[in-house]
Design goal:
Blueprint (H helix, E strand, L loop, with lengths): L2 H5 L3 H18 L7 E7 L5 E7 L19
Antiparallel strand pairs: 1-2
Amino acid sequence: MSCADLVGDTSAAAATLQIAAVLATARRTPAAVGRTALVTSADRDGTVGCALLRLLPGAVRGWGAAAQPLVAR
């Protein structure tokens, strides 16, 4: 049995992980504020999608001079 048979179609998960990676990178990179990121996805049936995201200041928790670190409480 192949890995694809065991896991199934992961195109939606791939797009979600790409967005998470964009947000994580933006949080660590102050120069990313005001820039855009392109996320694309395609499934095995040929459906494609894309999102163009503008990284705004304060949109991700942890940006800015007064930002507090994320701490589990």
